[in-house]
Amino acid sequence: MEMKFDNFCYYSTRLLMADVLGDVYVEVAKTQSAKKRFMYTRALLRKYNMLATTLDTDKFFEYEHPTISENFRQRGNEFFKAKKYEEAVDMYTKSLKSCKPTTECNALAVANRSAAHFHMGKYDLCLKGLRGVMWANYPPKLAYKLYERAGNAERKLGLIERAKESYAECLTRLDEADMSAENKRKFRAAVEIAATECDELLTYQKRTMKTPPVEQLVGGRNENIPALSAFVELKMSENMGRGVYATRDINPGDVVAIDEPYICVPFPDESEVCNYNGCLKFDIALFRCPKCVMAYYCNKDCMNKDYKDGHHLVCPIICFIKLTPGISKINELALKWFLKDYLKMGSKKYCSIVDNFSETKIDPITRGFDEIGQYKSDNFLTAYSLDSNENKMPIDVLFFFNCIAVDMLHYLTLSGFEIPEQYMGSVGASLVRILTVLDLNARKLNINAPSISHQQFTFPLALTLYPTISLFNHSCDGNIKRSGVISDRIRVMKAVQPIPKGTQLCCNYGIMFKEHDKESRQSACNDRFNFNCYCDPCIKNWPTLKFIPNRLSSLNILNPRMVDIVSSECKKFVKLKKSVKPKDHCRRINYLYSFIKLLYGNVKRPFALYEDCLEMIGDAHNIKTFL
């Protein structure tokens, strides 16, 4: 489902009330320079007092007096001692609502609630609470209890490696505990026994664990685009622009791309996904950032790396960014991207690169390649040069993005971050471009993002930007599709249909011919992505699934000499489809590959059994992670 802009009229309404909106749009339309457009917008918002004057975070939270929080917690303790754990949880939760999340009072209430959850058998909730306060203002002399409880909960959940780490940290923290030497000795001995049992369990797990095969690009790595197969190349076409084409025949199941996101952020406010760009690991219990308490991490290493990339600068303003008009997660992702590269390069180099990009006319086929002819997904300019439609979007939308960029940079400067005034135009224009690149490639095209499954539905875990996968154009009948563990940040793309030499490799942007007629598909492609689709289903006006033929006849057999073989195999496939459950499709994957190759060369599409086989191959390629 596509995300919509929040508060789109926020800036325009204020200017309309001042009776200047029409003049503003005229000025924005005639200003060709992105830098001048940003600086004009900045001056405008300043003139009409539309920018914040302070970073007053207290207005976002309403807390009662700490004494009230303490009273609720004490009542929770009484229920806990009486083994009335549900009532205890209720009191601890009320205690949390009465105190700030960065206080000791909050940490004590969360820790106590986790103990109640443990006794209720809700080990995942217990662990989430513990991880949330381990780096917070919890009394050091009591910290050993947190880690022992975490280890016990992790063992119950089968997280043996983590349990062992928690027990080790518990023993380290035991030195700070306020208890007698004898009690320390007994406690230490009990924890050491639990840790030894973890070692035995880990030895057994390693002995019985099956290692999944490592995916390899068919033909090896592409010489110029390392995330693509050596069996493909970039070419230009009149209707679709730059695209990826096969230089040899590619078979179903062949790996054609292995890409990593350039930038990513958990989505929505996901407390079970690591916020560090290089991790994005899905876990049931992560550590909470002690400063903003709105980002979560696997460990301190991930947190420190994320701080180095700029999260420490986001902490003081994250509440303001979340309330900035637009789409909260796109704004967060844009700020994360900007800070990561601005801090890495420094203002002078950063502005030189973005200015040079905006002022240089670049060959469409080599856009995003570096000076030695490499297109790499970890390169700033590769990501920055992706399509953005910035020059094609309506004036009101373009102005809206400029206003968002002005707001976000203003919050940064209010927090003490310094951007030299001579670089402000370049920085602002770059942030507008980053927003528009993400709007197109991460908001509207987030189909390949890490995902999680719940019952029959799949939900994205993050907003991601895959520079190499973005090279694949759309088809309403994609011949490649994502593969592997769908919650992984590394995205593997495999062929799901035969792809003859010279054919373009296309993925699907969420607009499929089986579900929508040609008119609605073309409308969606235009509205969301600003292009017309020229795939076979659109050119030949294929019917939707309900009207696709499901029988062989003289009308759809391409090779009459193969009719008996094709007919026989179709009957086998129908029996297989009825007898095999979706979770077992992967066990029949080689048969599915051979069947779709048989149909591809001998039956005219669309054909219902072909579409069924295609869906089964897609199921077989994906390893779902369930909530």
TrEMBL record:
Organism the protein comes from: Acyrthosiphon pisum
Any GO CC annotation of this UniProt entry: cytoplasm
Source organism, top-level taxon: Eukaryota
GO BP term, pick one: methylation
Record domain SET: where: 230-510
SUPFAM superfamilies named in the record: HIT/MYND zinc finger-like (SSF144232), SET domain (SSF82199), TPR-like (SSF48452)
This protein's name: SET domain-containing protein
Coiled coil: none
GO MF term list: histone deacetylase binding; N-methyltransferase activity; protein methyltransferase activity; S-adenosylmethionine-dependent methyltransferase activity; zinc ion binding
Family annotation (Pfam families): SET (PF00856), zf-MYND (PF01753)
Keywords annotated in UniProt: Metal-binding, Methyltransferase, S-adenosyl-L-methionine, Transferase, Zinc, Zinc-finger
